[in-house]
Amino acid sequence: DVAALLREARDAAADARVVSMRSHAPLAPAPLTNCDERRPRPVARVAIAAAVLLAVSGLAFHSQLRDAWLTRDYSTGIGEQRSIELRDGSQVRINVDSSMAVRVDVATREIQLNDGEALFEVAKDPAHPFRVRTPQAVIEAKGTQFDVQVRNGRTVVVLLEGHVQVTPPGPPPSRIGAGTHGTLRHAVLLDPGQEVTIGSSAAGAWTPREADVAVATAWTRNRLVFDDEPLADIVTEFNRYSSAPAIIDEPAIGGIRVTTSFAATDTEQIARSIAAALDLRVTHHADGTWHIDLP
Predict the structure, then answer these.
(1) Average confidence (pLDDT) over 189-203
(2) Over the stretch 208-217, which tens digit does the pLDDT of each residue have?
């Protein structure tokens, strides 16, 4: 009955083993998480930035390694000539005392010729122009044959076949008129049998003129041909071909202008021929050099 149930409830409340639910405070709700705590801490941000920088540096280093792997250097010494075939099938004949860097791949055909001379026979590839860069000019072709000489702060380009465009280093030239030839500002378009000199202060620089192709390429047959050139320049050029150099002892005779042709490998013949033609004296020294002087 009801009275019995009430007595049983009072007896249970007095029992120490029974814990009343009212004796405990309600549970506090879990604290809300601050949104700022989810943002990267300063140390984490530094770590992320370092990782990004490392990745970018790695890409740049990889690019440098790729460029170095794709670029090959070629050089020749005194009296040494060399012929090479590039990856695109182009042929290059390098003259004595020359140095160049070559990069030819599926997208690029670039030559850097800083000093010396080379004859280029370019494989046809209209989609990828072939460029030879010198300190004074950029020569661009798509399939042609031409000679480039870089000496004494000037570049001389002689065209044998096809067409080439010669521009100064820097931004591409701008077109200023209609037509095919002579229409680009700061640019020269050559026809076969023409040449142009860049980097010279003499009259006619940057102006195409008729070239003597046989003379310009005589070096490929181990001959040197000079037309009204100063004796000092002739001796300097010859000394690139011989380990027994000629030396002008009297500076005054270096300005004498000479027209001559000779084999590039016989120092004695050259020295004696020049001395006889100009009424000069030539002597052979114990160190192998040939000295040219006044009588």
Answers:
(1) 85
(2) 999 999 999 9
Res 205: pLDDT: 73
Question: Has residue 202 got a pLDDT over 80?
Answer: no
> Rounded to two decimals, what is the model's pTM?
0.71
Angle at 188 between CA 187 and CA 191, to 5 degrees: 155
Alpha carbon distance 33, 25 (integer Å): 23
Which pLDDT score, from 0 to 100, does residue 76 have?
97
- Which residue's structure tokens are 């300063």? 42
Q: Is 284 helix (H, G, I), strand (E, B) or coil?
A: strand
pLDDT score, position 51: 60
Strands 130-133 and 109-121: parallel
Q: Which two tokens stand for residue 24?
A: 């405990």
**CB of 268 closer than 8 Å to CB of 242:** no
| β-bridge pairing 281-284 and 290-293 | antiparallel
Beta strands in 123-245 (DSSP E): 130-133, 138-141, 145-151, 154-161, 164-167, 188-190, 194-198, 209-210, 223-230
Q: How many CB atoms lie within 10 A of CB 31?
A: 6
Beta strands in 67-137 (DSSP E): 71-75, 82-85, 91-94, 99-104, 109-121, 130-133
**Distance from C-alpha of 65 to C-alpha of 151, rounded to nearest angstrom:** 31
